[in-house]
Amino acid sequence: MSELKYKDEGWNNIFNKLNILQEIHLKNKFLISAKQIKDLSGKEPRRLCKNDTIKSLPKLFQEEKLSILPIKNGQYIIYKDPEFKSFARLSNFSNIKLDKYKVQSHSKLITLNKEKLTSESKAIDYASNYGLLNHYCNDRLVPTIRGREYSEEFDFLLDKNTGTINVKSVQIEVDSGFEGDDTILLIEGKNSTRASFNIRQLYYPFRHYDIRTKQMKKIKNVLLCYSNGIYYLTELVFGKNYYDYTINPTSAFVIEEPSAKKINLSELLLQPIFSPNTDIPIPQADDLNKIVDLVLMLNTKTSMNKHDVADSFEFDERQGDYYSNAGRYLGFIKKENQNYTLTNLGKKLSTNKSRKERSEILISQILKIDLFNEIMSTLIKNDLKIDRNLIIKCLEKKGLIGSTAARRSSTIKSWINWGKNEL
């Protein structure tokens, strides 16, 4: 069972036994204890209340526009969040210009391997030890914060209807915290990118350390996403109240990317082509870096099912299917019963040490597929200017029509744009 189904079952039980929606309609909020959550649902409160993205919210919360926050140790508030302002909407990472960062350290660490940064903590440690975080903050940072602790007491206003919320002794945790001459850096790390982010993960630690340090240094609150060898750093700037935040433009870095030979598109278009098995749908998974992330994850596991994929990327099972099937479509992943494992080509991609070389393998494989080869052979004559009508016509030849062809054309357009950036 996926985490989302686990949460759906638990919250459906709770909402069937308590008049939560009626009270929220009257007061805009509902207080509930961890004991009530466990007794009424039969499930773990920590898992039911962990919603890091909008997509990871239980179905009831999504439909009724609700969010939940811890306010005391063992107590929560459910509240109306009609625009889901409790979640920061993140930019389209594929459109962000990559900056190359040259390592500032003279020593090479053999126990922290760039090719095996399979967890948030390892990715953060690598960025710290090789100076990327210093560069980003323009400060000399040392690691000072890691692990869980209980928050200081603070208040904030959600909105005029919900009123002021008092928070005291809530368990908080950041993936890493650093201190420099002028800066305190708080980092929440994610393996791969996200479309949204629950601001509580950084807002509570920000308020806690803002009180504890008596505002002696600037606190920088950063979401770090590590995807296919790329560091995406997004700063959230908070005010006192919960919705008083701004999202600064995301910076993207690759660390000491070696020079690679230029990809020859014309040569790749002359490769022998093939048509994927008809039981594998034409992809509806826009982010190619996320497909690489999935392949890299599978290299560290025996297998994954669609629930595992959905949980790893904090989205629903439908998207888990989309990305798993996209990996199958490209020939990197195979499905045995309900489990996904790597093909030999997937193993080759996952063990390649260079992001640029992985990109070449990926582009080469895409252009071996008859659909993409036909589209790109036409686009290359027009300076790779994307023609949506052409894409839809090619999809119609594959039997897709109407809105289905339009949706798939969005993925194909995204893949082409990704490839253009890598050439």
The count of β-strands is: 17
Largest sheet: 8 strands, mixed
Tally of alpha and pi helices:
17
Shape: globular
Beta-strand residue percentage: 15-25%
Contiguous runs where pLDDT drops below 50 for at least 5 residues: none
Give the helix level as a range of percent. 25-40%
Question: Using only CA atoms, what is the Rg?
Answer: 23 Å
Structural overview:
- The protein is α+β, with helices and mostly antiparallel strands.
- It contains 17 helices and 17 strands.
- The strands form five sheets. Strands 5, 6, 9, 10, 12, 13, 14 and 15 form an eight-stranded mixed sheet that branches.
- A hairpin with a 2-residue loop joins strand 12 and strand 13.
- Helix 11 packs across helix 12 and helix 16 crosses helix 17.
- The longest helix has 21 residues.
- The two termini are 41 Å apart.
- The model has no long low-confidence stretch (mean pLDDT 91).
At a glance:
By secondary structure, the protein is an alpha+beta fold. Helices cover 40% and strands 23% of the residues.
Question: What is the strand and helix layout of this fold?
Answer:
Blueprint: H1 3-17, H2 20-27, E1 29-33, H3 34-41, H4 45-48, H5 59-64, E2 66-72, E3 75-80, E4 87-89, E5 98-101, H6 120-129, H7 132-137, E6 142-150, E7 154-157, E8 164-167, E9 171-179, E10 183-191, E11 196-198, H8 200-212, E12 218-227, E13 230-238, E14 245-247, E15 251-255, H9 265-268, H10 288-298, H11 306-313, H12 317-329, E16 333-336, E17 339-342, H13 344-351, H14 355-368, H15 370-379, H16 388-397, H17 402-422
Parallel strand pairs: 5-15, 10-12
Antiparallel strand pairs: 1-3, 2-3, 4-11, 6-9, 7-8, 9-10, 12-13, 13-14, 13-15, 16-17
Helix pairs in contact: 1-3, 10-12, 10-13, 11-12, 16-17
